[in-house]
Amino acid sequence: QVLLVESGGGLVQAGGSLRLSCAASGATIDTYAMGWFRQTPGKEREFVAAISRTSISTHYSDSVKGRFTISRDNAKNTVYLQMNSLKPGDTAIYYCAAKFAPMQYVVLTQTRAYDYWGQGTQVTVSS
User: pLDDT tens-digit profile of 28-61?
Assistant: First the structure.
């Protein structure tokens, strides 16, 4: 069982930056593919970014490509999402997710692919 806890959300002005963290416990995440998703009221949870277990592979949604960076520190059992040039459209609850995936190139972009989810952290971008 993997427990994921997100932190780092908050209120920021458009053009600003935030860094989200996802701390894992219950297992070491070095054999897990990790991802970030976001959700706004009335909408389905959408993919933001994903990273393979060794960081060899990453993938981003078109809406955040070039502005967001996903990274991980397996020694700290933590995954990060650096968000720059934030826009009001980035406002959402951001969720961290994990899936056991020992193949080092695997990145997962579908919500149904993940087995473990955090409780989410709110990001609000004001115009």
Answer: 999 999 999 999 999 999 999 999 999 999 999 9
Tokens representing 46 are 């959408």
76, 89, 10: which is closest to 48 by C-alpha? 89
Residue 31: φ, ψ to 5°: -115, 20
Give the DSSP per-residue string, 26-90.
SS-GGGEEEEEEEE-TTS--EEEEEE-TTSS-EEE-TTTTTTEEEEEETTTTEEEEEE-S--GGG
Region label for 120, one of left (φ > 0), alpha (ψ between -120 and 50) or beta (otherwise):
left
Tell me the pLDDT tens digit for each residue of 86-119. 999 999 999 999 999 988 899 999 999 999 999 9
Nearest to 34 by CA among 64, 79, 74, 87: 79
Pairing of strands 46-51, 58-60: antiparallel
